Amino acid sequence: MREIGSEEQLALVVSLLSRKIQCPATAFGQSHGRCVPASLLLQLDEAGRRVTRTPGVGGVEEMRLDVLRWAQRNKDAPWSSTDLGQDKLGKMLAAATCGDYFHRDLQGKSWERDLRSWQHDHLSYPEQGCDEAWMFAAAARYGLRLHIYMCPLISLKRYTFAAPRSAWGKTIPKPTTDVHIGIVEGRDGGQHCVSLQRCSTAEQLTQLTPALALGAALLAANTGSTFV
Question: Is residue 221 part of a domain?
């Protein structure tokens, strides 16, 4: 996820989908490195689902740890029925967190070692944030269809992750809940995750006003016309 775009760009585009950005800090306060689980909790709350016992910011950390421990505990759960390199949940997560996963495997290094290393880094350095592998594990853990949005240069990119049919069973449930999150440029130069909540028609029009003004300005610049 290299080209992600700003929060302002994403806000303008997702307003066309009747959604608005909610920074998780407005609901849970600043919790550095935990914006992904915080955003997912906001989405699940909107869907009427509760997956943590602890309210508030404590629930964010509870969810973060629950996903990591669940993934390690169920690493041998079936995943893909067509790709032997990812026939287990743990193999898929190792591949998601290690760009050179297949090359490393050929050198005799175990995917289980990669998975343990991934878990150790998340437990030891929570401020680094939750990566794509954590998002995939959370989607599998809670039966989610996870929709991830980014908007570089006013061009919306959307990625959807959900457990495949071959993985559905006692351990990994069939996806039943759609959740929508955005990845935007962080103020510190990194990445930040936000929740994309449903919005009313009035809120949608409010968000579209800057987009209409921008479009008029661009048109005026290109045609020599003046819009008052």
Answer: no
* Structural domain total, the chain: 1
Sign of the Cα torsion 123, 142, 60, 37 reads positive
Tell me how far apart the alpha carbons of residues 10 and 5 are, in angstroms, rounded to a whole number: 7
Q: 105-113: long-range contacts (C-beta < 8 A, 24 or more apart)?
A: 112/75
Which of the pair, 73 or 203, is modelled with greater confidence? 73
Q: Which of 56, 57, 53, 6 is nearest to 34 (CA)?
A: 57
Q: Phi first, then psi: what are they for 127, rounded to 5°? A: -65, -15
Q: Write the pLDDT tens digit of every residue in 14-24.
A: 999 999 999 99
Here the CATH number for the domain that contains residue 104 is 3.90.70.80
* pLDDT, position 227: 33
The pLDDT value given to residue 215:
46
